Amino acid sequence: MTTEVGRSSIRSDGVTKTTGKAIFGTDVILPGMLHARLLRSTVPAGRIVALDLSKVAEFPGVHGVLTAADIPNQRSGLVLMDAPLFASEFVRFEGEPIAAVVAETRTIANQALALASLEIEEIPSVGSVEEAIAPNAPLVHPDWESFATPPGLDWPRSGNIVAETCSDPDGVDEAFAGATIVVEDQFEAGRQYQAYMEPRMAVAEFDGQRFTIHVAHQFPYNVRDRVAAAIGVHPSEIRVVGHHIGGGFGAKLDTGLEPYAALLARRFGRPVRLANDRSEDLLTCQCRDNAVIKIRTAIGQNGELLARDVDVLMDSGASATDIPFLTSIPMHVFGSLYRIGPVRIRTRAVYTNTAPTGAFRGVSGTHLYFALERHMDHIANRLDIDRLEYRRSNLQHDGSKLPTGQVLDDAGILSEAFDAVEQLAPWTELGQGPNRGVGIAACMWLTNPMPGSATLKLNSDGTLGVLTAATENGSGAIATGVRQIAAEEFGLPADKVVVTMPDTDAAAFDAGSQGSRTTHIVGRAIREAAIEVRAQIFDTAANMLEAAPEDLELANEMVSVSGSPSKQISLAEVAATAQANSGPISGTGSYTTPMPPINPTCASGLLFPAFPTPTYHVHVAEVEIDPTTGIVRVLRYLVAQEVGKAINPQAVRGQIQGGVAQGLGYALWETLQIDAGRYSQRTLEAYGLPLATDTPEVEIVLLEHPDPAGPYGAKGVAEPPIIPVAAAIGNAVEHAIGKSVNTIPITAERVLEALSSS
Questions:
Q1: Cα-atom radius of gyration of the chain, to the nearest Å?
Q2: 109 is in which domain, residue-wise?
Q3: Which of 360, 656, 708, 755 could form a disulfide with 250 if both were Cys (CB 3.0 to 4.6 A apart)?
Q4: Is the pTM of this model over 0.85?
C-alpha cells in the first residue's frame, strides 16, 4: 500500500514561488557583473555592406564589442553546425546577431547600441515553405554541404531542404487505383510562440580556466555540451548551474544566449549577463514550426481505409535546430489511431529566411493530428457516417502496427478513452442548436525515452536528498512527482525529501525537461538508486537491531524487525550511525527506456525511430459560433487521458487544464504571420494569447493503466493535453457552420471567410 504515490501532494516550490523568494535565472546577480546586448539584423536576408561600431565602443561605460571578426568560423547547431554565432557577410533572418556590446549597465548597453552604424543591402529572401522548394529558389545557405554533423549521423539534404524522411511501401498506388472514393485535403498551421513568463537569459563567468554558466534552462547538460562545441572548449571546462525556470515549453531546450555570455565573460574578465527583452524574445525565439500538410486517403466500398499518401512541409527557419529529428514524427502519427493499409509519407524540413523554429510542447503533433483528425471527419462526412462511430469502427487494437513496424501492445486503451468521454457527456447531446457544433479528436503520444539519473543521500537528520540534473519546468514533475516517488521508496513524508537544483558538476547526466519524460525516467532512476540505498540501510540497521537484513522492513521513517514492532530504530539514527562508522548512505541509479522493435527499412532519414511507452487520449469540444463576428466560444471541453499511474492526481489534472488552455490559444488566436520574412505580430498584445475567461473548466477522466517499466506505473503526462485541441476545435467549428476551416489558428476572420464562401 502506497502512502505518497497517488496522493495530491503540495508542490515543494509552491511557497517560495508564491512569496517571491524563488531565485529564477533572471534574478542572478554576481559581483562585478557586466551587462551585454546584441546588435541584430533588421532584415530577413541581406549582405552586410558596412558595420562601424567605433562610437559604440567609445561610449562611456562600455567595456567593448564583439563581432564575427573576433571569433572567425565559429558555428553552433544541435545536430547541424549551420548557425554562425555572429553574421559576418550575410544575414539570414531578422534578429540574427551581428555584434555584442558589453557595458556597466543594461541601459548603457542599449544607449551605446543606438550609435551603431550598420548598412545591409537586402537580397531576395525565402519567406515560406512553398518558396523554399520552388525551382530556382534562392538558397538560404549556399554552403550547406560544408555543415558538419555529429559522427555517424546524417540525412538527405539538398537545396533548401534541411532534412527529409521518406516512406514508400508497396501497394499504395494499387490501393488508390482500386478505391471506391478518394478523399483529399490540405491543411496549414502557423507558428506558435511559447510565451513563457521569463525571457531567455544567461549569466556567465570565467575564472581563467573554467566557465560557470547560470541558466533558467530545461536541459543543463545540453547547454554545457553545446556551448563547448560553439566556443571551442572541452565540455569539462564548463559548469552549468540551474535556477528556477519561468516557463519553457521546449524553447529552453536548445542554447540561445549562453554561448555569447560565455565568450564575453572570457573576453572581458568579468561576469556577464545577457537577457532578451520581450519583443526581442518573441522575434527570435525558436517557436513551434509552421507547416503545410497534404493528405489523401483511398477508401474501400465498405468505408475501410485502404491506403494513405501524406506530404508534409515543415519550416525550419534559418537553421536546423532539432527539426531534422521532427521530420520523423509523421511516421508515428498518420497510421497511429486507425487501422489502415500502406501509408506513404514524405516529410521535408526546409530553410527559410525567418527566425529558426524548434521544440514546443507536443512537437509537430499539434498540427499533424489536426490534419489527421480533420481529415477523418471529412472522410466520415463523405461516407455519411457519424464521425464518432466511424472512428470507433476503425480503431487500432492490441497488436496493431505503425508504419514503422512498431507494435502497439495496448492500443485497446483507445476504445476505453472513447467510452470515457461518452460517459461524461453523450455525443449525440452535444452541439445541438443554432450555430453550435461538437468535435472529437484523438491522439497517441510517446513518453520520451532519453536517459536520466539520480543520486540519493540519506542524511543524518532522516531527510532524503535527491541529486539530479533534471529540471523543474513548472510542470510539477520534480516539485511533486519525483519527490513523492523518492518518499514512497523509504516510507517518508514528501516534505522530508529535498531535491537539489541541477548542477552539471554535481549531478550525473539527464536529458532535460522534455517529452513528458521526467517523472517516468527520473522516477525510475530513483527506484534503481533506492535498491542500493535500502541495502545499505538494512546492513547498518541489522547490526543495530541484532537481526538479519532480510528480516527488516522500512515504513513510517522507521526500520523495524518483521513480527517484532517494538524492535525498531529511526532512519535518522541509521543514517547517523552509518555516517560515523562506515560512511554516508547513498546510491545512484539511471534509466533509459528501451526502444521498441521497428522495421529499419521502413523509411529513409528516420532519426527518431519509435514512440516508446505510448499513451492514448480523446478530446471532445463543444463550441458556439457568432455568425456576425465569427468569434468561436468554447462551451465545454472533455478529456480522457491515459496516464499510466497518476503519481499526483491534482498535478496531473493541472497539466491537462494548462495543456488544453495552451492548445486553445494555438487553435483560435495565437499567430505569428510572416510577411516577406518578418513577423507581423511583434508584441504579446498583438500576438493574441488567450485570457482566463476564454478557457472553460476542463472535464477530465484519468485512465490508469500502469506501465510495468514506469515508477509505480507512471507514464508521460504533460505533452499530450495540447495535441488534439486544435483538431477537436476545428471539427466542432465545421460541424457548427457547415464549412471547413483548414488553417491554424481558426480565427474569427477565417470563420467569417468560410461562412461567406459558396
A1: 27
A2: 32-123
A3: 360
A4: yes
